[in-house]
Recover the amino acids of this structure.
């Protein structure tokens, strides 16, 4: 899909806490709840598109309030396990704003969405920056990963394009869901870099306490 106008304006959304993904990145998902298995079945029969968005708070409600920005993804691979689970790989297409929830009698949640605020996700405009601009941030982030016990193959990661590297680190970083949401909502790569640095500086200054950047 190369145009915003080609994207759907009504989308099934899978709420998943502390999980974000971005356009041009891939994410494996393990689907086991019956309502989401039906969501995947319905999506496979239509356009193979679903949305991912984080719930706010810690509510276990079946309808928690969601953050207003999520990412639309396309199901690129699909496998059913012997115990009835679905293992899929989702490729990010474009971020979206949630407009309102709609009820069409499905067991899963559907929303009216708007992608027009994220045209650059589709247009893939060049960003005037390079890997050297991020070297200090990467070094500080490596220290955070090591202290938190996270293992990242940095050599493989740095073979990717700069935008994909930053987005992959945003997804994998040991940050709170609010901090990850800030990275998701950043307008562009430079804005995401700035948010990243603010979060890293906070973690370094308070020795990994539970404070969250607001």
């Amino acid at each position: 899909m190369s145009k915003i106008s080609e994207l759907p304006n009504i989308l099934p959304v899978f709420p998943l806490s502390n999980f974000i993904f971005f356009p041009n990145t891939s994410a494996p998902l393990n689907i086991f709840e019956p309502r989401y298995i039906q969501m995947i079945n319905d999506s496979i029969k239509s356009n193979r598109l679903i949305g991912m968005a984080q719930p706010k708070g810690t509510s276990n409600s079946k309808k928690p309030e969601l953050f207003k920005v999520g990412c639309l993804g396309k199901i690129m691979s699909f496998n059913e396990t012997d115990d009835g689970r679905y293992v899929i790989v989702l490729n990010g297409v474009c971020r979206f704003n949630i407009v309102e929830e709609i009820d069409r009698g499905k067991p899963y949640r559907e929303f009216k969405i708007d992608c027009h605020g994220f045209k650059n996700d589709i247009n893939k405009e060049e960003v005037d920056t390079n890997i050297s601009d991020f070297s200090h941030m990467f070094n500080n982030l490596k220290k955070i990963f090591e202290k938190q016990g996270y293992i990242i193959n940095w050599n493989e990661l740095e073979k990717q394009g700069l935008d994909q590297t930053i987005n992959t680190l945003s997804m994998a970083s040991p940050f709170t869901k609010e901090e990850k949401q800030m990275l998701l909502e950043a307008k562009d790569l430079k804005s995401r870099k700035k948010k990243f640095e603010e979060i890293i500086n906070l973690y370094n200054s308070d020795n990994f306490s539970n404070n969250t950047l607001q």
Observations:
- The first helix runs from residue 34 to 45.
- The chain has seven helices and six strands.
